[in-house]
Amino acid sequence: MAVELDVFVGNTTIMDEEVYQLWLDGYTVNDAVKVRMEGGVLDECEASADVLLSDTMDQYRTFQMCERLLHSPAKLANQCSNDFPLLCLSLFRYYAFDDAFVREVLGKKLSKGTKKDLDDISAKTGVTLKSCRRQFDNFKRVFKVVEELKGPLVENIRQHFLLSDKLARDYAAIVFFTNNRFETGKRKLQYLTFQDFAFCAGQLINNWTVGAVDNMVEDMDVDLDKEFLQELKELKILITDKDLLDQHKSLVCTALRGKTKAFNEMEANFKNLSRGLVNIAAKLTNTKDVRDFFIDLVEKFIEPCRSDRWTAADMKLYLTHYTNSAHILDTFKHQVVWDRYMGVIKSCIFKMYHD
Amino acid sequence: MPGKLKAKIVAGRHLPVMDRASDLTDAFVEVKFGNTTFKTDVCHKSLNPQWNSEWFKFEVDDEDLQDEPLQITVLDHDTYSANDAIGKVYIDIDPLLCTEAASVISGWFPIYDTIHGIRGEINVLVKVELFNDLNRFRQSSCGVKFFCTTSIPRCYRAAMVHGFVEELVVNEDPEYQWIDRIRTPRASNEARQRLISLMSGELQRKIGLKVLEMGGNAVVGYLQCFDLEGESGLVVRAIGTACTLDKVSSGSAPNTNTHVHPNTAPASNACNSPSKDGKESPLAHGCRSTHNSPVHSVCSSQRLSQNFSVSVPTLIFTGMGSGGSAGKEAGPLKTLLRQHTQTALEQREFPFFTLTSFPPGFLVHVGGVVSARSVKLLDRIHNPALGNTRSYKLLDWNSVTADEPETRDAWWEEIRQEIKSHAKALGCHAVVGYSESTSICEEVCILSASGTAAILNPRYMREGCLDIGSTDHRFEDPSPPSCGFCHIPYDELNMPFPAQLTYCYHCRRQKVPDVLFTTIDLPSEAAVTGKGCLIQARLCRLKKKAQGEVNATAISNLLPFMEYELHTQLMNKLKLRNMNALFGLHIQISVGENMLLGLASATGVYLTALPAPGGIQIAGKTPGDLSNEHHILTIQKRINDTIAKNKELYQINPPELTEEGLGSPIPEPRQRSRLFRSHSESSDELSELDLSHGKKDAFVLEIDDTDAVEDIHSLLTDAPPPTGFYSCNTEIMPGIYNWTSGIQMFTSVRVFRLSNANLTNQGLNKIFTDLCENLLKSFYFKLRSMIPCCLCHLNFTVAVPEEELIQVAVTAVAMTFDKDQAQEKPAEKPINKGSSENEEQLQFPLELCADVSSANTQPSSKVSGTVSLLTPAAKLCQNQLVMIHLPGVPESTNVSSRAASVDYGSFADRCSTWLELLRLKAHTIRRGSVKTSRRTQSLAHSVSSLERCSPLPEGRSRSLRSSRSFGGSSVTVVKMTPLSFLPGIRIIKYLGIINMFFIRETTSLREEGGVSGFLHSFIAEVFAMVRAHVAALGGNAVVSYSMKECVLMENPNKNQAQCLINVSGDAVICVRETDQEPTASMTNIGQTCCSANDGAT
Question: Cβ separation of A77 and B14 shorter than 8 Å?
Fold first, then answer.
């Protein structure tokens, strides 16, 4: 004796958020029923375990049916559905991701190979495999769709997946990282959170990509501006020209003197640090070095500063004066490129300078 | 007379990929009406084609306009092979034939394929130009309005109620034609869908003709059913109540729901549509309807004798404690007839009314439930009409010459006659709340009809009736309105059955029975103590598998016992809840190969006018046995406890009556009636037992065997609904008057497989009862977020689709109400409440439930409410504010207050608006406050003041730079309810009847999530298609929605399933009760939309 068929269809879909979350988290129906029972939902409503099982199965089926729609949310808006608001809400949840998980795949190719490693990632992060797969597929789906589109990346993601601003930005960061294959997995970068990277990605997208100058090109927000990268080579003069380097150093030191406890370390390290930053700039024409951008930043700049125990305020002070002083150098003609470069470097380093 | 039908194909969207190579589709459209077909150009390589075709014009007879649907087929062009069908849309153009209803059909229709379901959408415009005055036509009945609603529709008033109309048409079922062996399942399904669409059209036209003949202009309570008789054919039949309706001008009575005082009704006769010849003689109508049925009684009885036919002795449910009395009461009937003054009603062939609620004063007295069943053997329907000029030409049963085999008409006639005579036996001249149904298993068919015997106020009938009516003393003696209908219609001295009468507890002047059963809704004027509740009696009876006559005899032998036992159960459960009347009683008996299922549902109430029910007393058969005695005592205690608990639960605190207060101290003839288990006794004994009355005032249950003990246990197992829930199967819950606007309509289907081959009746009963109880529990659980709420119009349908399967399908609506005022009936209709509601909405508590960013929200911290937004496109329908309820919100008490249509101007706007709202929501939650932000208020302000500006900040509305465009789409939020009204919402226009039939078939059942997944998505698709059609008519809600048929056939081994669903309802435009009548622009929505669409293309 068994219930062979059991459906409940409302004119507007009834969705239990708790069950939805369990579904997203990859629980099986039976596990979900257990969790719900422990949650005490039965006592509230004088229901039996059968009722709960039936409800959970029904909800799971609804989610599975909605999933198709959630994969191409653009269609959502046109469905003859009373559930648009509900679907919007569920959409946000569906496309939400675990920072721990995204941190693992950030910058990696969204290929079959990576997908195979998901069980390792699942074990490492404690996110269920099912949930990992969903998140991975979401990344891949978004990546595929926006790949071919013109226009601003964040806007495209928002339009096509109806995501919130915040979520759209995060996805843009993921797409950007994936496209440029930034290295994020090295041990030295482990201390950085996804939000750190997302912020940096935002800076890079807004300032260094083709889209920063021309907003109608394909891939405008995904590829770095090649011309700009070429121009960055010119900055080398700041470290190759000895006079310029000394002049720059004295200007910065004059400005900093007496304003920070770490002045001595700053003065001592100036040339090293300056070489580090300018070298990063000069090398960005190589794809390989673009990938190492973050690791270079950490190795060449953040780590030395940290070992000298600069405070965040010190860092801010130093970088501000370091950037501004270059304008006073009369023989230095690449002010625009310098600003475009340092603007991003400054904010990235501020964001990344923490424990 | 001809009319011109014009159709224009605008665009398609989200078409499926038909060409694997390019991942695109080369779509074109065929538009077919009758035998004329037009084609659009092929729109190459697009999933969102823009055809923007010319106007295709069809010049056709209006007869065809009524019968035929407009058939739109979307195909994929293929140069080398046959074009592949993507899917179809059938558009019923009937609503366009009524001048008052929709003027244009325009909108996005889901493209439906019987194998793949919905595959994209198509934007279509349809208009009709009729050349001549509609009333002159003979063959067509354009202009007659149809309503599924079983009361006088709001915004109309009944000038005259003419009476019963019925019709049926028969055809061969395409599924069983020889050609079905060689054609594809798709072709077969489509043939069936099309045929049924044609047959319903024809049926409606014929009914319309009858209505015109009677001088009416509308059919109310239109009930259309299909009988899928398999080999022997397909029957589409319909019944309804012909009326003359006058539109209530909105200015004069904006808030009344058209219930006219009876006195004003005759005066309004002048406004009737010209009723031609038959006007002066009521008799003519009766005759006329006889003419329509060509089967003469002699002839039919002759036919009957050739075939096998069993008429089941029918019980009359009078609601008397004695249960049923067997059918033939010729003696008292005659005396009654003599005494009873003839009224016009009696001269009609069938004085039946499919209405379940009436204008005040219409219903004078109610006698009780009358029902009749008959078992028939199906015969192959001979269909000679094929090969006619119209190849699809249907066989109209009524037009066939007398040498045809016996007709369904004759069968129904027989049953109706029986019902009529039952009503007469109860001293009544009319039957209200009348309905008919069938249950078919192989070649056996059970025909059932039931209704409530009643005496009606003749002033609603023809003028001629008035004089006759006034000679009847009963009508001169106006009963107090709140109790009049309870007073017995039959003569006290010549009661048709033994009954216990008392003086009415309300007026103390007339006699009332101790219990009253009816099939109608509780009259609005009735005084009720406490609240009502759903009462169900469930019963399974095994029967041996058999064929032909043996089978039919077996079934007909079982039927009376089932009816009796269901009645007993109902009575016991009623007493257990301390109530004394049942409304909306619906008894369904379904036949399967090896069992019969009986399900009786009703809403129990305590009518103040009726005496308090006595308790239930348990009596043992062997009084000496001590252990038995003890056992009985415990049961008795449990029963008494339950009664006491129920009294509290349903707030039944009848005012204590002081005997002295009675005008004439009549000794209460409260008699003991015994209830016996019926299955061990023959019907002969039954009638004898009816006479055995004792002197106790309690109801006695005698325990004589273990079965009886089981029965009492099952009596006590019905769990009351959890706190905060009420349920009923009538339109609204007696005792709840302050509905708030939250509604959730749902359909639920459960199929149970009995694995145990040798089940007993008792075991089956338990399984069936548990199945129903668990379903109810599931609903309560699912809808817990709506508490306090009431499940209204719970409509259970049971079936035995296969040998070991029991299928239960339920459609109902959950409505929220205000708990605080729940106990008092407001003096007036809650009009003022609307304004407070309005105020509430002006502030727009923008409290959404889900915290998007955080994965784990605390239910307690969630707030909920109404979200509103106004998109730029809402300019189109200024008065229809956009209110969208976010369902699934825990603790949601205040839900969207009305249906409204949302026109989303562009995709971009639409989603950014939502983002806006959701962000706000997140903000609100973060602050842990219910207060809305400044932004919200400005949004709310812009909505409430109907400013026609976009609430979006400039930045958001920047145009989409993406290459894809989603512009020009409009989506309407369409509310659905099985009730005839929406709380807090006023219906301003009826757009026509929605009657849709769909077949869905799959050969990949597993991939679609098994039967559950298959049916779930099918029902969701049906909802979507209903909503799309309503929206295309310019409507924003469906009332009186019902699912008439849900036939599921599955073969999991072959990975196949097929399902047929038939739904119907009334498409309406409605506005919030507080809103002003929309301006003329309202009617032009469709046009505005289409011009918008034109602009977009």
Answer: no
The answer to whether residues B510 and B316 touch, using CB atoms and an 8 Å cutoff, is no
Tell me the pTM.
0.78
Convert the pLDDT of each residue in B806-839 to its tens digit: 999 999 999 998 876 544 444 433 333 333 333 3
In this structure, the number of other CB atoms found within 10 A of the CB of residue B23 comes to 10
Instruction: Give the bridge partners for B402, in sequence order.
Output: none
Q: Contact B500/B323 with Cβ under 8 angstroms?
A: no
Pairwise pLDDT comparison (B1055 vs B904), residue with the higher score: B1055
Q: Which residues in A lie closer than 8 A to residue B1016 (C-beta atoms)? A: 7, 9, 58, 61-62, 65
B254 CB neighbour count, 10 Å cutoff: 15
Number of other residues whose CB lies within 10 A of the CB of residue A306 = 14
The reply to whether residue B752 touches residue A1, judged by beta carbons under 8 angstroms, is yes
CA separation for the pair B303, B294 (Å, rounded):
14
Taking the C-alpha atoms of residue A178 and residue A182, their distance in angstroms, rounded to an integer, is: 7
Q: Sheet containing B693-694: which strands, arranged edge to edge?
A: B616-620, B699-703, B672-675, B693-694
Angle at A257 between CA A256 and CA A261, to 5 degrees: 90
A96 contacts A167 by C-beta, under 8 angstroms: yes
Q: Say if CB B371 and CB B419 are below 8 A apart.
A: yes
CA distance linking residue B867 with residue B848, whole number of Å: 8
Strand B581-591 with B156-171, pairing = unpaired
d(CA A78, CA B999): 24
With contacts defined as CB-CB under 8 Å, which chain B residues touch A162?
911, 914-915
Structure tokens at A92: 């946000």
Q: Are A14 and B744 in contact (CB under 8 A)?
A: yes
> What does the pLDDT read at residue B821?
54
The residues, ordered by sequence, that sit 6+ positions from B630 with a Cβ below 8 Å of its Cβ are none
If one compares B550 and B315, the residue with the highest pLDDT of the two is: B550
B residues 1026-1045 closer than 8 Å to A (CB): 1027-1028, 1031
The span from the CA of B449 to the CA of B1060, in Å, is 24
* B140-144, B406-410, B433-437, B692-696: least confidently modelled range: B692-696
Residue B91: beta bridge partners?
Answer: B70
- Quick: pLDDT tens for B990-1004: 998 999 999 999 999
**What value, to the nearest 5°, has the Cα angle with vertex B581 and ends B580 and B585?**
145
Percentage of residues in chain B with pLDDT exceeding 90? 22
Per the CB < 8 A criterion, the answer to whether A104 and A121 are in contact is yes
What element of type H or E holds B702?
strand B699-703
Distance of CA B631 to the CA centre of its chain: 45
Tell if the CB–CB gap between A8 and B746 is shorter than 8 Å.
Answer: yes
* 8 A C-beta contact, residue B717 and residue B977: no
Pairing of strands B56-61, B2-13: antiparallel
* Per-residue 3-state assignment (H helix, E strand, C coil) for B327-380: CCCHHHHHHHHHHCCCCHHHHCCCCECCCCCCCCCCEEEEEEEEEEEEEEECCC
Residue B394: Cβ-neighbour burial (10 angstroms; 0-12, 13-18, 19+): buried
How is B897-947 classified by DSSP, letter by letter? -S--------HHHHHHHHHHHHHHHHHHHHHT--SPPHHHHHHHHHHHTT-
The ipTM estimated for the assembled molecules is 0.82
Partners of B694 in the beta sheet? B672
Do B755 and A2 make contact, defined as CB atoms within 8 angstroms? yes
Which residue, among B193, B110, B290, has the nearest Cα to B1061 in the 3D structure?
B193
Question: Shortest CA distance to B719 belongs to which of B563, B573, B571?
Answer: B573
Q: How far is CA B230 from CA A71, A75, A196, B227, B1000, in A?
A: 42, 40, 69, 9, 18
Tell me, what's the pLDDT at A171?
92
At residue B251, the pLDDT reads 43
